[in-house]
Amino acid sequence: MPFRDLQCALYNGHPVLGTQKTYQWVPFYGAPNQCDLNCLAVGHDFYHSFGRVLDGTPCSPGAQGLCVAGRCLSAGCDGLLGSDAREDRCGRCGGANDSCLFVQRVFRDAGAFAGYWNVTLIPEGARHIRAAHRSRNHLGIAGSEGGGAALAARIPRGGRWQGRGGGQGHFQGARADLSLAALMGGDGRYVLNGNWAVSPAGTYEAAGTRVIYTRATGPEETLRAAGPTSEDLLLQVLLQEPNPGIEFEFWLPRERYGPFQAQAQVLGWSPRQPQPREVDPQPLESPTVIPPPIPIPTPEPCPPCPDTRGRAHRLLHYCGSDFVFQARVLGRVRQAQETRYEVRVQLIYKNRSPLRALEYVWAPSRCPCPPLALHRDYLLAARRLISPDGTQDRLLLPHAGYARLWSPAEDSRVRLAARHCPL
């Protein structure tokens, strides 16, 4: 018998309310103070308060709080009643979200054919998972018993896989009862919306967590899961009309982000700033007249850069930037009034969203200040710049920003700057 029921039952058969009439009592949870022993008379429409409940009584059925000295106290993640300690997004008690990374992207592939298309891998250990879109398309999740690292597909008889890059694709020429993508290392299975059948809204068990699947009256669909996942999951979409964009996000332990990047490449994600495609050279026709060469004007020399040395400058850019990292410059391209550097990220000091191993960093001038030399290591403070239509997502190195040649001394200075940034 629940503890509160037992306390109410102690008054069964005993006269109360100043009369000799007796009642049978059961808990009543509609009273204002849930830490009073409020008991309802069975068969009657009134309740009576017998004072405070005993310490340790749950505040209400299914609640985490306990009544102590007439107050409802909740236990923090440290197990102490009345503690304000809470788990951060990484699952650490009292943490500061610094042991995991936030992955947030929009899948915009239009899909050449109707069918299932891979959206993203949700790796083992992911938390606070969310995916949403507004269309008549449907999201689906495939899991794996084996939790393998590579993607595979089971193609039904008469079906043919159509895809690109080893990842995104669908089945063509197969019947509607086909079984689609699975994770290598176990038999593929769908958690919901698999085999061309739309699942009802509700709660589903998958990878050691509960997936809450909702569909609004309009063309809106949402998946949520608290995590952490105990194995990899593959999020797919069943395209029936043009894809307006599928938003997805989750938090991932830092040590799992590298393998996730490798899987993202298997799924065919393009880099943040894709390089232009190379065009095969076309044979030139034999000219009859060769025009005289047009002299190319010599560009004006770049003006000197302003002095950006000093602790105040370092602190300003470290605290105001989205990213601070050590990188080696691999390439440099000047495009109109911009300069684009290709860099290899070697060490991350600060990041508000995940960084890839290879990134493009843009400087808003053909004469960037300070200029970066090829094949040298730098400490860079960059900002994230997203265009209003969401088609461009860039790392921006501001003019006269923070870009210093990396050295042990500069490493110490930037770590010291991190301690002085306001939270």
TrEMBL record:
Statement: the UniProt record of this protein carries the keyword Transmembrane: no
Xref: Pfam families: ADAMTS_CR_3 (PF19236), ADAMTS_spacer1 (PF05986), NTR (PF01759)
CDD domains, per database record: NTR_like
InterPro entries: ADAMTS/ADAMTS-like, ADAMTS_ADAMTS-like, ADAMTS_CR_3, ADAMTS_spacer1, Netrin_domain, Netrin_module_non-TIMP, TIMP-like_OB-fold
Entry superkingdom: Eukaryota
SUPFAM superfamilies: TIMP-like
Residues covered by the NTR domain: 302-421
PROSITE patterns, alphabetized: NTR (PS50189)
Alphabetical keyword list: Disulfide bond, Secreted
Key word Lyase present: no
Main location: secreted
Subcellular location per the Swiss-Prot or TrEMBL entry: Secreted
PANTHER family linked to this entry: ADAMTS A DISINTEGRIN AND METALLOPROTEASE WITH THROMBOSPONDIN MOTIFS PROTEASE, ADAMTS-LIKE PROTEIN 5
Official protein name in the record: ADAMTS-like protein 5 isoform X3
Organism (species): Odocoileus virginianus (White-tailed deer)
